[in-house]
Amino acid sequence: MLPGRPRNPRLAQLAEQIRRMQRRGAAPRVASGLPALDAALDGGFVTAAVHELVAAAAGAAAHSLALRVAARAANRDRWVLYIDTPQDLYPPALAQLGVSLARLLVVRPWRAGDALWVCEQALQCRAVAAVVLPLRSVDALASRRLQLAAEAGRSLGLLVRSDERGGPTFAATRLRCEPLRAARHTRRMRVTVLKQQEGAPGEPFVVEWPDAPDSVPAHAVPADRAGAARRLASG
Amino acid sequence: MRRILCLHMPYLPTERARRDGWPADSAAAAARPLVLTRPVGAAQVVEKVCPRAAAAGIRPGVTLGQAHALAPGLVALPDDPARDRLVLDRLARWALRLSPQVQAVAPDTLLVDITGCQLLFGGEANIARQAVAGLASQGFEAYAAIADTVGAAWALAITSSPAGAWNASAAVHLAPPGQTSAALAPLPPRGLRIEPHVVERLDQLGVRKIGDLLMLPRAALPARFGSQLVLRLQQALGEVYEGVASLQPDEPPAARTVFEAPIADLRAIRAAAEELLSRIFAQLQRRALALRQLDCVLYYERIPPRVLALGLARASRAQQHVARLLAERLEQVDLTGGQAVDDSASAPCGLDAGRIVSGVQRFDPTPGLTGLLLVARATSRWRPGQGALFEPTEPGADESLGVLIDRLAARLGPGAVLRPRLVDDHQPELAFRYEQESAGIGGQKESRSGTLTRSRRAARTDSAAGERPATAAPDPSQEALARLPRPVRLLARPVPIRAIALVPDGPPTWIACRGREYPLADAAGPERIETGWWRGPDVRRDYFRVTTEQGEQFWIFHDTAARTWFLHGYFA
How far apart are CA B149 and CA B192, in angstroms? Predict the structure, then answer.
């Protein structure tokens, strides 16, 4: 053993744990481009972590939000991976959300267990910026594995859950998304931060964005509040 | 004038087996009839017969027991098409001494373009004679024919080889230059490389010779016999060009092992496979190649060999990566001799794979693999990247994506890893397609996403009042697309729902789907989508994007022909 290193394996383990936590603190954040959400999340979604979006209603815009964030996480040379277990993703809509189809992989596993395996493998891969996985629920063990994989690959895991029930998980944040009636060509949802790594869960707040024409590739736009506001006003 | 030599070796499989499975010294054994068998269930079925066995009356398709009854001294060996293919490739390389243009056509034929080579051999008949003699000295009986076209040479060679009778004389057939149709006329149509059922139909109509066929009006043939017949006829007559593909000069790197006794233990097989793999990679290294597809052939005692094809998304030299993929595939295969547990992506969700396997295993008393063959089926030139001097090189972003794709495809099947492409079609469920992202392509398929579907709108867009102009969109096709609302999730099959609309054909105010009722707050539309009558089932739909009182958004449509409402997608 090298001198200067702690001899106690338990101590070494704790030191490694602290180092890992410090690394996570330094991880960059991906802004969603939605001011209220970014403010509540202290700047955006932390990379190298797994986030959960809980939406019980099928017609809420949770998938759209996840894909929006994934598109912003991917820059020109990294990929977005969508795990399409229900086999109903509609790619033409993704182009409207700003996801570059040239940098999108769709994986269609047949079994739920395979979906989690695919997610873990993809999160570990350096070429993948974000993985979007719709699923019903996730248990603590699977969540831990996904979190470690995201740390290894410095990637962003976005789980879109349809069922809020279930035990605690290792996700960095968990958001509840509830649909709200909106004017035409906008999407609105009430977001509640159920869990956050730093800071307490907050009050529900309203997020609104214009629906389709994010025609400029999302990653080319900085967190552009003025532009979003202008688009809202014009709609 | 092109001249093509066709060498047909009708008994190649049995002759190959005789050479492989048998020490040549026992002359008595060499004179015994030989059949190659394929296990079908518990029985062994004769697949290929040698001339002596054929003379004894044994035909492919009878069981081994019946064959033994017909020919007492019979020898039976397992059929092995993969080995036949390797031997044929080797013979094709041997034939390069005749001409630089040689093509091996599985299972038993070589095509040689001998245009201009006649002078070197003293006449084309000499080339053919040398070829037949050379193949005979290697133990293969060949029938040769020379003609102006591939099709004609093929027809002459195939029809000259006696079906059953064994005579090595008169093994060369020549069609003099320019007399192709005269040479073809007396031959039976089966020489034309057409489907057996077409031959049968021609025979029923009394067309027993190609000459008879030539007299029929050509324009009427495709409707009765399919377009292939006319194409083959034109190719044989030289009206349509058909070339001899040049041979890939090197045989693919391959490694093979035979086990002493059948093995079903995954660890032992994996160890053997890794040993073979390191031999393959040593060959790749020597020849500066990178692997793109690996075929792993599993030999069983009782059932035909299985081929596991392992395609790589990117050409690779990483042996560990390939070893891991191979191990992944081997885990999914039932090594005891049943079917693969997870052979293809077509297995529906929740299928009880174990039950199927046990059903197959019923008649398999001695389980296990008897041998293993690895072939680097597709390779490409290795272009090494620049390595770093001091640090261990980290694989580039793209390469590591290739590794990921390979791993996913190895476990889930190649049909599960997909790249979406937009298709210019205004029927929503046809506006995109998936391409498989595996087996050696990819990387070059970028830059298409900019050209998005220009969705043609079949008819009116009544919602113009509520439609706002798209914000500054640089690309007009983007603009067109952006104005059409599309849901993130589209149901593969629209779900019938109940709906109430105040006006017939107007926007609905209330819907009930999947056991729940939704009063609607808003319905944007209609967007009418119609397809042309020439596309089969008529599609006439009015799409609405509806918002429920709770704020959920659905994509529903009114089938104006059937007067029913359907849920088609979720703005999820």
Answer: 12
